[in-house]
Amino acid sequence: MIEVRDLRKEYGGFTAVEGSTFSVDTGEVYGIIGPNGAGKTTTLKMLAGLLEPTAGDVSVAGHDAGTTEMRRKLGFLPEESPLYEEMTPLSYLHFFADLYDVADGVADRRIHDTLDELDLEHRDRQLGDMSKGMKRKVAIARSLINDPDVLVYDEPASGLDPLTTNYVIDFTSDLADQGKTIVFSAHNLYHVESICDRIAIMNEGRVVAQGGLEDLRAEHGETEYHVFTTVEVPGSVKENGRYRSVVDSMDGVERIRADAQDADGSVVDIRTEESSLEEVFLDLAESGAKT
Amino acid sequence: MNPRKLLRIARWEVTKNAGGVDRRTIVVGALALLTVGIAAPYAATSGVAVDSGIYRVGISEESPYYPVVESDPTFAIREPNADIGEEIDLRIQGLAIQTAPTPKAAAAQTELRSSVRAYNNRQMRQESNQSAAFPVVVSLGYVERTQVREVISTSDRQEPTPDDAGTGDGGDGSDGSDDSGGGDGTGGDTGTADGSGNDGTASGGGGENIGDVAGGAGGVGGIAGQLAGGNTSGTPADISPPFPFQSLVLAFLFVLPLNFIIQAYGSTMLSERLNRRGELLLVAPVSRFDIIGGKTLPYLTAAVGIAAVIAAALEFPAVAPVSVAISVLAVVPIALLFLAATFLGAMFARSFKELTFVTVTVTVSLTTYAFVPAIFTDVGAVALISPLTIVVRNLQGQAIGIGEFAFSLLPPLLTAGVLFGLGAGIYREEDMFTQRSIPLKALDALAARVHGKWSVAAVTAILLPFVFVTELVGVATLFAIPNALSIPTILVVVVVVEELAKSLHVYAGYAHDRFEVGLLPALVVGAFSGLGFFVGEKLTLLAQLVGLPTSVVEGQAALATGTGVPSVPLLIGLLLAPLLLHVVTAAISAVGASRNKRAYAVALVVAMAIHFAYNYTVVTISGLV
């Protein structure tokens, strides 16, 4: 559904994105994470056709980015919600429905259904009088007005309270369940981890790692083995009447088992702990690894 | 461009603020409009008439003054035998008029005199034999100031006699005007109609004073004479030529609303950029031209609508649709130019503070361009550089040729197109929502239209209207100063404007890596820019066919590359020489632009120097200096 190849964007002498290549399948949820200034928003804007790449190719739903055909199939949600605050949600959404050539009856039904799903009341109130969460819901409704195949969401829960954040993330997850192809960026890695099928980690304009969460952990993360023994072995810590040792390989587990047997003890429990996405991200960001 | 989307955006632009107006305000506004709608036509046809029936006149129907009193609503008719001073202010019996000894009665008598005069004029105009009604017809013709000097210097400078000034037969009044450039002759006309000769006397007096001015103040007129201690009254009638108040008022009426419209337009354009409000429109399946067109259309419609209302009101009650249409048609390029300049400014401004500077600049510069020449509609052909001159001439009932129409309207129309095109070039995410510096935005705007050598030539040619208007404004600004100073100054202006027009977009193209680097590619790009300019310049020479610049020496200096061509070889030479000039200078600038900013600056100065030398040689050969 989305093909990005050797994408590069320069602003004057500054390179914001360099050599990004990835693809997103139909119905897939693809998350982009990275520190501030990593190039996430620039990448998403090039996907949405807002920015013209300095080099490289972007194809969305079979169309080059920026073309009218591609825009008809795309729903874009920017990081902020730049609404026309003198308008009401209904007039605002109807205006965009007209621009997307959505028939009046269809638009009316779609607007009310979406606002019902988003639990947005006060639909005749001016947008300027609404809370940030309510505005965000209107912005999300606008991104869905054309029933797009592809959604590009930049920090969809940015600046929202926890309750609204969960609501927005759950709604995004529901959209994924409906078969929408979604690309989104987030600072909250828990959200990415919870709904994304695949993830790209960007740093300094480059995609430094990408793949499924398990693949990323396997490739860039670590697995720790917590070995509990009845007797003290070198490097162990007493914990609730037992001794806990942490090693990063099965060889280490076997060594502890041997040490315990030598001391007339035994291994009573072994637990594995894998790196979280946050740990993988921090590790990659700090090391500046290159793909 | 999609007309349906454009109109939808235009409708949105008009209605998006509707949510901010509560119902009570809407009701109050509607009632106010309704009141004005009812009251205005009544006031226009009947007048406000707060003085209706203020003077009481005792008069019988047999009196010859009865129709006069009856026709003037100021008077209330009473019985002639009523008590004077108590019940009536005036008593009229036959031809005898008795006035009460009160200030109000004196005022009533004055009003009666005016009414009689107006009544007589109406009667005269209804006469089938107009020659009998108005036996003397005065035709006024204005001459150029230099000819006035010649007339004065060659005449015996005989001072007007008291008879000339005072007999007041109207013809003398106008003679005073013609001979000395004073007096507007209106007095003569009125004097004839009234038979009183009073106004004719006043006008003749004006003519007498102008004689002093012409001799002492270089023909600048009554104001200069007054400043020089001359014996003038300082009234508009003293100014030589007569100050065109009608043109001034007409031009002012049409240009004033535009200044208000661009405030709202600039504000809505800038508000799209602040807080990234317009970002989502850029993602929608509409082109930037749909957005710009849709947002501009309501303001253009308002400008045109206001112009139509003003034109119709000025002709009321005898409104001629064709005349109104001509006025509106002439206002369209001016309105577009105002909007285009404001649009471009709003695209460059980074805050409302900067937008204020932009709108003030647009207001002052374009009002000057449109307004000042139109004031002097009857004075010089150069006034035609402003489309408002067409409006004024149209409303004054003067004929307008197609050539004059095209000459006046096309440059601002095309300039507006260029400005909109440049603004559209930066109507994109990167330029709209970032604090990009103005020079970089200017380069972005130009580079957006440059993609190869042919586009370089096209952009150069498209910039010609801008060059043309700039040069004409220079001519209009400088034509009043002595030729020895004005022509070199004009030449400098021309050289700077033209060389920038030929090279700035080339430099922008190089800054955006649009061209291959190297000496030969730079020479080719420069040559194409020069070629584009040559073609465009020849098109502007068509302007001379309508006769404006040939009547103005500075116009020849600015626009012509030679006049009074004596032979075919020289004609060919003068045709090809500009091509060579533009190709060479543009190539020099392009080579500099292909290197870096400093090299471009140096090359540009060299190109300007060559261009100046060429132009100066041409105008010297032509005998202009």
From TrEMBL, chain A:
Assigned keywords, A-Z: ATP-binding, Nucleotide-binding, Transport
Question: Membrane spanning segments where?
Answer: none
Sorted alphabetically, which InterPro entries does this protein's record hold? Answer: AAA+_ATPase, ABC_transporter-like_ATP-bd, ABC_transporter-like_CS, ABC_transporter_ATP-binding, P-loop_NTPase
What GO molecular functions are on record for this protein? Answer: ATP binding; ATP hydrolysis activity
Q: Which domain of life is it from?
A: Archaea
Where in this chain does the record put each ABC transporter domain? Answer: 2-229
- Kindly give the Pfam families that the UniProt entry links to this protein: ABC_tran
Q: Which PANTHER family match?
A: ABC TRANSPORTER ATP-BINDING PROTEIN, ABC TRANSPORTER ATP-BINDING PROTEIN NATA
Q: Which family does it belong to?
A: Belongs to the ABC transporter superfamily.
Q: What is this protein called?
A: ABC-2 type transport system ATP-binding protein
Automatic annotation (TrEMBL), chain B:
- List keywords of the entry alphabetically: Membrane, Transmembrane, Transmembrane helix
Q: Where is the composition biased (Low complexity)?
A: 191-201
Q: Does the keyword Disulfide bond apply?
A: no
> Looking at the record's lineage, which domain of life comes first?
Archaea
Which positions, given as ranges, span the membrane?
A: 26-44, 245-266, 297-318, 324-348, 355-385, 405-427, 448-469, 475-497, 517-536, 570-592, 599-619
Sequence ranges of Gly residues compositional bias:
167-190
Location of region: Disordered: 151-210
Q: What is this protein called?
A: ABC-type transport system permease protein
Question: What is the species listed in this Swiss-Prot or TrEMBL entry?
Answer: Halorientalis regularis
